[in-house]
Amino acid sequence: MTDESLSGKQWRRLAISVYLPTTLSFIGFGAVVPLLALTAHDLGATVPQAALVVALLGLGSLLGALPAGMVAQRFGERRSLVGSLIVDAACMLAAALAPNAWVLAVAVFVLGLSGAVLMIARQSFLTVVVPFRFRARALSTLGGVFRVGNLLGPLAGAAVVSAFDLRAAYWLAIGTSLAAAATSLFLPDLPEHHETTAAESTGMGTVLREHARTFLTIGLGASALMLVRASRDALLPLWAASIGLDAAQTSLIFAASSAIDLMLFYIGGSMMDRYGRRSVAVPTVLIMGACFGLLPLTASGLGLTAVAVGLGLGNGLSSGVVLTLGSDASPNVGRTHFLAGWRLTTAIGQAAGPLMISAITAAASLSVAAWSVAGIGFLGGAWLWHWADPKRMERPSA
């Protein structure tokens, strides 16, 4: 599958072995995540403790980035994916049967760790098997699949919880994780040259040191993009509440933003493959930066909807761009170690967005927080324009 084209048959094979299990696992994940705080509270946790349980998911994903690279390097992509999905199912089972909030917290933390392995193994696999001129479309489609799962998951979770009880969502997730593990067994074998270079790969520390400049240049720009993207979920509901919108109106505005987001992922990938990574990375972060700059000027549901749609446009087109930039820069030798460092770099930006908004809002106001995110968006766009120049990036490795 590493020639210079992808046939319809090969795309269908990827759909069955990569995109289908990803969709299944994210449906279960999306069904459970909105219910974690409620489950913790049901088990006797206080509000701060319930919030901590939810935060452990992101913390596990962040701390698991580098170990995930070592796992994928040691066991290979297919075994890592199947094994991690089985661990996911075990975590969901532990959460479903948890007698107290502490057991739930451990299950959630491990779920974050296994999620990091899944992410890196999928990205590494697609980086190797998909020709370079189709890479952005393949990775943007993966990003789109995440969005589909996150859209369908809460709907499926709501359905089973309404029909049964709160724990039913976890049993649904167990089923989707095991189904995803079964379909991941159809993952094609990687090319022989990748197995050879993987076996010869140097250690994690060596790979990270050798590519530190990449993490501090293009990685920093990608981290800024992740920060801006993550800020949408924090700022939009807070601003909606500040202008007097109720929960139903806020949900509808989010739905409009998500709908635009979901429709554009393949277009963004196609543009990157045809016109280069900067053709998407730079405009999208500037669009989102401009939207956050306009946010404090909105005083009605209509104005906020316009801003939310603009954010959906930028977020949708940028689906897969961070994965693609990382894959482009990844070396043949030590690829999964590099991708682990890339994920850690960009995940820090993703985690920093909501934290920065919380700190600025406490010290100043929501408007200042929005303008700060806008400023980072504009700076990130300039940074990406400079460092995402193909002449500055490392030579494509696949």
Quick overview of this protein structure:
The chain is mostly helical and 398 residues long.
What features would you describe in this structure?
The protein folds into two domains: 193 residues, MFS general substrate transporter like domains (Growth Hormone, Chain: A, Up-down Bundle); 180 residues, MFS general substrate transporter like domains (Growth Hormone, Chain: A, Up-down Bundle), CATH 1.20.1250.20. The longest helix has 29 residues. It is mainly alpha-helical and 398 residues long. Helix content is 81%, strand content 0%. The protein is built from 19 helices and no strands. The termini are close together.
Quickly give the structural class.
Answer: mainly alpha
The main sheet comes to: none
Proportion in helices: over 70%
* Sequence of secondary-structure elements: HHHHHHHHHHHHHHHHHHH
The parts where pLDDT drops under 50 for at least 5 residues are 192-200
What's the β-strand tally? Answer: 0
- What is the total number of structural domains? 2
Mean pLDDT: 88
End-to-end gap: 11 Å
Portion in strands: under 5%
CATH architecture descriptor text of the largest domain: Up-down Bundle
CATH fold node name of the largest domain:
Growth Hormone, Chain: A
What characteristic shape results from the CA principal axes? Answer: globular
- Give Rg in angstroms: 20 Å
What's the CATH H-level superfamily name of the largest domain?
MFS general substrate transporter like domains
User: What is the highest CATH level, the class of the largest domain?
Assistant: Mainly Alpha
| Number of helices, where a helix is a run of at least 4 consecutive DSSP H or I residues | 19
GO molecular function, one term: transmembrane transporter activity
Transmembrane segments: 16-38, 50-69, 81-98, 104-132, 144-164, 170-190, 211-228, 248-268, 280-299, 305-326, 338-362, 368-388
Subcellular location: Cell membrane
GO cellular component, one term: plasma membrane
